[in-house]
Amino acid sequence: MPEKVLYQVGWRGGSMAEPLPLRKALERGQARLKGKGPFRQKLRGENSYGPDKGLPATMTRVDHQLRNVCKLGDAVWVKSERGRTFVFRKVKVYVEVNVPPCPDPYATPAVKGIWGVVQRLKDDAEAKFGDLDFVYLGIYNCRHIAGSTRWSQHSWRNALDWAVHRPGGAIDMEAMDWIIRRVRKVSNCETLWRVANHYDHNHVGGCPLRTGTPSCA
């Protein structure tokens, strides 16, 4: 079953919030701690707290520890000026991922496989980058490659164009980079990203690439 690393936050001794992606957990923690500093912090299990720090420095340190130090189940404790302890805890959540069907039932088997891979990676990316909107930009388009007499892989339904955006906003370049690096491990015959005409979406062709003249011509 697919799994995600997420984070719970809450005051020690109280109820912990639902598991959240790291960015959202940090935002919620910062909102709860605002106006309650200075702060001291430590990893759960350590003997003593560190020196007093303001909120920005505290959150930077918490971010670093959750990303790079904490193992699953570990927690960062942040003690407020009045002695209350706020907890950031790293957890693993097992999730049921329902991959939507490929929107083009006549796409090549390779592209149907890529569709599933991209959808699952998008879900994984949300655990790291927060909520993302998947933008489907097409599979079938009977045409030549722009500025060329060669036929596009889209003419054989053998390519997928897609992107991920911040909810209701612009393309998330960092999340795109993260997903595309992993897509290339699955299908690296033709991946166009951060090149001419491909700064706003990724084009990924299925293996093997098609040659000759498509039936739609």
Describe this structure in words.
- This protein is α+β, with helices and mostly antiparallel strands and 217 residues long.
- The chain folds into 2 domains: 3-93; 98-205, Muramoyl-pentapeptide Carboxypeptidase, domain 2, CATH 3.30.1380.
- Helix content is 27%, strand content 22%.
- The chain has a 4-stranded antiparallel beta sheet with strand order 1-4-3-2, with helices on one face. Strands 5-6-8-7 form a 4-stranded antiparallel beta sheet.
- Helix 3 packs across helix 4 (173-183).
- The model has no long low-confidence stretch (mean pLDDT 91).
How would the blueprint of this fold be written?
Layout: E1 3-11, H1 22-33, E2 40-43, H2 55-68, E3 75-79, E4 85-94, H3 109-129, E5 133-138, E6 159-165, H4 173-183, E7 190-192, E8 202-205
Antiparallel strand pairs: 1-4, 2-3, 3-4, 5-6, 6-8, 7-8
Helix pairs in contact: 1-2, 3-4
The structural class is alpha+beta
Q: What is the makeup of the main sheet?
A: 4 strands, antiparallel
Q: Would you give the CATH topology of the largest domain?
A: Muramoyl-pentapeptide Carboxypeptidase, domain 2
β-strand percent reads 15-25%
Task: Give the second-level CATH assignment, the architecture of the largest domain.
Answer: 2-Layer Sandwich
Whole-number average pLDDT? 91
**Strand order in space, largest sheet:** 1-4-3-2
The total domain count is 2
How many helices does DSSP assign? 4
Q: Could you give a short description of this structure?
A:
The protein has 217 residues and is of the alpha+beta class. It has 4 helices and 8 strands; from the N terminus they run βαβαββαββαββ.
